[in-house]
Amino acid sequence: RRDNAPRPWARRGMDQLEGRNVVYEALSRAVRPVTRILLDERTRPHPKISRILEVASTQGVQIHRAPREKLDAHSLTGVHNGILAEAEPLPDWSVTARLNACLDAGEDPFFVLVDEVNYEHNLGAILRSAMGAGVHAVVIPTRRGKGITPVVQRVAMGGAEAVPVIREAIPASLKVLRRAGVRIVGADMGGETLWDVPMSGPLAIVLGGEDKGVTHTVRDRCDAIVSVPLAHGLDSLNVSVTAGILMYEKVRQSR
Length: 255
Description:
Elements: E1 15-18, H1 20-29, E2 34-40, H2 47-59, E3 62-66, H3 68-74, E4 83-87, H4 95-104, E5 110-114, H5 120-133, E6 137-140, H6 150-156, H7 159-162, E7 165-167, H8 170-179, E8 183-193, E9 203-207, H9 216-219, E10 224-227, H10 239-253
Parallel strand pairs: 2-3, 5-6, 5-9, 6-7, 8-9, 8-10
Antiparallel strand pairs: 1-4, 2-4
């Protein structure tokens, strides 16, 4: 660690949440315990802060107040909006366990698999859209790409609380989903126009990383390859934008 690098406020083994939205979502969804909160002592009255303090009080969460400079020194994202929180890590899921939970609930499984996203803002944006679209889980590779960092959780604005992020090998995950009868649709240039491809019912959407499409290994496991039609000679979209478009096309077709 560099001498001027921020020092996490959260204790070892705990998650650090930064920003009003993600702290409120963690408290209100209660997927994992929030253990304590650090609040800017000069924070002005605000409805979101009032709701945070109210829910935190009912859950017995410790509230600490400190100068903003202290929050600045501990912020890992650079954008804390006057509040940090410490929380237990998110629950671990496997693809098999999440799939079985969907089936036991009588719901059509809806998974998004993203191979090697290296920019935290992209994974956070994907999670935010996945929450809105009703996705059951986002699967990312075991080691490659970004995991659930403080930046990802801040950008997701509660998406990480609502949508489990599972770290498993993409080919192995697809094998599990296929065996359960889940249709696999990959996103890549040169595929069929997305609205011409059936996407209702059990579905897994597969995307590549920022600088590459889906690999040949993954492509061979897909039932269809789709692309988003683009104008003005544009050859691709940001991976999080593509993910959002495909998720909501599935939602549209399932209406």
